[in-house]
Amino acid sequence: MGKREKSGFWVLAAASIFYPLSWLGKRTYRGAEKIPATGGALLVMNHVSHLDPPNDAVFVHRNRRVPRFMAKDSLFKVPVFGRILAGSGGIPVYRGSTSAADSLKAAHAALREGKLVVIYPEGTITKDPTGWPMRARTGVARLALENDVPVLPAARWGTNDIWNGYSKKFRPFPRKRVWTVVGDPVDLSAYRGQPVTNQVLREVTDLLMTRVRDLLADIRDEPAPAEFYSAGARREAEQ
User: Fold this and answer.
1) Which tens digits make up the pLDDT trace of 128-142?
2) What is 127-160 written as a DSSP string?
């Protein structure tokens, strides 16, 4: 086991909150050895519950790295929690504003400084009624293509059985199994060097989320849907 990445007061403060929250589930990890011990890395994950960040932070921290989460800027304004998030290296995402590019700049800088960045490309908890990933935002592709770092797909399942963000049901007992599985780094060599067009960004985003979806299908032991869920497409179909 390698040396733990250097942290600080705010990382320890986050750990004091997140570790107890992660104990709500019986954790099972697979593929953790694929997380690099040092250097920049992009961990691409699905999002099914408000318990995902604590669970994922503990998973990364137990593998001796400090996770840098990309999170909505509003979370940084929450008393105490926002200070912990910022102090532990969180990266605010300013959606729908002129600051949106700045949020990606901060993530680029973190990767180039050798940090491990965790991103939920869907941008929010999936609205798919059965919990599969939604059509994702393309910022993840830009980060993956413009930085020479390992891009690791990962899936997590079971946090939604403890805390369902849409039904508002919180069911900690009996304790549920929470799976976290990391896949092999995604080979993006076919896309590197190409002009970063909207089409390329969409193709790379879908490729990354397909790898995440395949890992989730393995955890759930059931076939994944052929298409990514889109709330807009569903509304059009219902009209």
Assistant:
1) 999 999 999 999 999
2) --TT-PPBPPPTHHHHHHHSS-S-EEEEEEESHH
- The answer to whether 49 touches 125, Cβ cutoff 8 Å, is yes
On whether residue 188 sits in a domain, the answer given is yes
| CA–CA gap between residue 188 and residue 145 (Å, rounded) | 7
| Contact call for residues 177 and 158 (beta carbons, < 8 A) | yes
Q: Is 116 helix (H, G, I), strand (E, B) or coil?
A: strand
- The token pair at 58 is 């503990």
For residue 12 the two structure tokens come to 């320890």
User: Is residue 174 reached through a cis peptide bond, with omega within 30 degrees of 0 on the bond before it?
Assistant: yes
Does the residue 174 lie in any domain? yes
- For residue 30, the enclosing domain spans 24-229
Are residues 41 and 193 in contact, defined by beta-carbon separation less than 8 angstroms?
A: no
Cα 42 from Cα 91, distance rounded (Å): 13
Using the 8-state DSSP alphabet, how is residue 38 labeled?
A: S
Count of domains forming the chain = 1
CATH of the domain at 104: 3.40.1130.10
Per-residue pLDDT averaged across 23-43, rounded? 97
